[in-house]
Design brief:
With 314 residues, the chain is of the alpha+beta class. The protein has helices at 2-11, 176-182, 228-286, 293-300, 302-312, and strands at 21-26, 32-37, 42-48, 53-60, 64-67, 73-77, 85-90, 96-101, 107-110, 116-121, 131-136, 141-146, 213-214, 217-218.
């Protein structure tokens, strides 16, 4: 009890990022454990029995820690509401062995051999597209089984598990070729791929055998090759084009006339406004008010103003 209380007191200060603890797992073969903690992307760190950090895996979107039965490999995974990203590490060297994605995974279990595992999309978590896959640690799918649409897969389990575990598998990191093959490649058309299909189309010289060709110019109405229906369709197309051109010209003409009428009405309105102002000035002058020179000049333009108004109202 004292040991437990002391460890709790130490552990309370080792998590250096705020947020929940998603998972904590002991290594089955070593005195060390891994904790996933903090708001997403969470931190993943390895601790010894004194709660000292002995390795930091950095931050990523994880919520599961999955040691193989022998404890020499571990997978850090993001399942459930995460995208199914998985990273596998050698627990001795702490080097990454592989990285890949198993989308829609709701179940994971290592095989007793410790070098392959099974993932599944199971009910009731996901009731559609139920399936399971068997993988190796490098991300190669060894077997993939999909159930029928009207069938739901509820449970998966390795059978005939040995009472004594086999020797731990030897972790083997991905080679440079495997890493390059795993990376998404930019699309290249088949004609630009090495060894891919090449363009085989060639220009065919028909010589003078082409119908309706005269001096290298194709004339659809020349010769006897054009049927009556083709001529009829051609005339329809020409008539439609002519009608469109006529409609466009009529529309342009109407628009122009409307613009002219609008401009004339606008000018007439301004002239009548000036005439109203002149009448007000004359009334002020008759009442004995002394007008400014520019106001008197404005009154003198009354005759010309009336002539312009008469022209526009015709």
């Amino acid at each position: 009890k004292q040991w437990y209380q002391r460890r709790v007191a130490i552990t309370a200060g080792i998590l250096d990022k705020n947020g929940p603890v998603y998972s904590a797992q002991w290594n089955p073969s070593r005195d060390e454990f891994i904790i996933l903690y903090g708001f997403m992307p969470c931190k993943a760190a390895v601790y010894n029995t004194k709660c000292d950090v002995i390795h930091n895996f950095g931050e990523n979107h994880y919520n599961e820690i999955l040691f193989n039965p022998q404890g020499n490999m571990v997978g850090l995974c993001g399942f459930g509401n995460l995208r199914g990203k998985m990273k596998f590490y050698d627990t001795t060297t702490k080097k990454m062995l592989s990285e890949f994605t198993a989308s829609d995974t709701t179940y994971f279990e290592w095989a007793p051999s410790g070098d392959i595992f099974i993932t599944g999309t199971l009910s009731p978590r996901l009731r559609q597209d139920n399936e399971f896959k068997i993988w190796n640690v490098k991300g190669k799918i060894l077997h993939h089984h999909r159930v029928d649409k009207d069938v739901q897969l509820w449970q998966l389990k390795w059978v005939n598990s040995p009472t004594v575990l086999p020797a731990p598998p030897i972790p083997a990191p991905l080679t440079s070729k495997e890493i390059a093959a795993a990376k998404p490649q930019a699309y290249r058309p088949p004609s630009s791929r090495s060894g891919g299909p090449q363009a085989t189309r060639k220009l065919i010289d028909h010589g003078s055998n082409l119908p309706n060709v005269n001096d290298g110019v194709y004339k659809p109405h020349s010769g006897n090759q054009v049927s009556k229906q083709a001529l009829k369709n051609q005339r329809k197309r020409e008539n439609r084009a002519a009608n469109k051109a006529t409609d466009a010209a009529t529309t342009d003409s109407k628009d122009f006339q409307a613009a002219v009428v609008d401009e004339r009405e606008k000018k007439l309105k301004n002239l009548k406004k000036k005439y109203t102002q002149i009448q007000k000035l004359k009334a002020q002058q008759d009442s004995g008010k002394v007008l400014e020179k520019n106001q008197i000049d404005k009154i003198s333009t009354e005759k010309e103003l009336l002539e312009e108004i008469a022209k526009l109202e015709v």
